[in-house]
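[Q] Does anyone have a clean structure-token version of this?
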Amino acid sequence: MTIDSPDSATQGTHGSPAQSAQAHTHGAEELCRPGTELYARALREGRVEQRDAEPAPCLLRFGLLVPADDDSTTLRPVAPAVALPRLLGTYDEEIARQRRRSSRLADQFAPLIALESQRASIPSTPMFRVLMGFHRINEAIDEAAGEASQELLTIQPGGRRPPQGLAAALPREQQLLSSGGRMRTLYQHTARHSPAVTAHYEQLTGDVQVRTLDEVTERLVLLDRTVAFIPANPDRTVALEVRHPALISYLATTFDRLWQLATPMFPQAAAEELTADGVTTRQRTIATLLIEGHTDAVIAERLGMNIRTVRVHIAKLAATLGSESRAQLGYLIGQSGILED
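[A] Here you go.
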């Protein structure tokens, strides 16, 4: 609390309303001497006239004086213990709004900051090249595919691919196969239910094989084990063209190991075949992720599935095990032994 100068206090008490307002120039979170004296009088007398409060509008702003219920021309005092929480609540709401605004701004700027960071930290060199935008990325892959003659290895996360994307890739894939090269593609099991993916590989002739796993790594295109393309940001609008021999060897080894673990892609989805305990292999995979504590959304993302499909599998698994709640389901999964392989 601060005290105004004697001159301003006198002017606020005896001057006109305009002069009083002009003299009342202390900070927004301060209470002046006229305000303190008027509030003390209001406590003694029970109320004061509204015109008496004109030299000290801070009392109204702080909620220490409010209109009387039975007389609109008078003001009654409010206990400080009541006025303060109300005032702080208003400030808390404003702080919360500002924090939400800050959070929204941070979310909007995060992709831009990440993009700038990637450009600054990953210089374009003969062994590493940054590709910006879908058009430039596809153009670079087409150029590399046109020079490839031996092998195309790809990892495609997610259950489905857009038909237009598959149609655009068909000519370069068939060109490689026609020249004697081979294709190996890894999908997630959910791709088995995609008519567009199935039809795409039915159109290709040559040494082409497709296998699926429950989970795969991020997207990868590897040509002749000499050049690879990998995403450089979450929405895949930036990619890296990699030609470093050590990294190419690492990516190729990773692909080969995943390939050995994968299941050949047949029209009948092996992932849906029932095991002896009445639980599908897909449900076993979901059960594993459930007991690891993952949410439905995370499970759907990792398995390339729609979240509604994940929940359907969880409901079937719960019905099979006789579970009535999410917590009980985790316990029953552990007790059933379905994950013991």
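[Q] Thanks! Anything notable?
[A] The longest strand covers residues 182-188.
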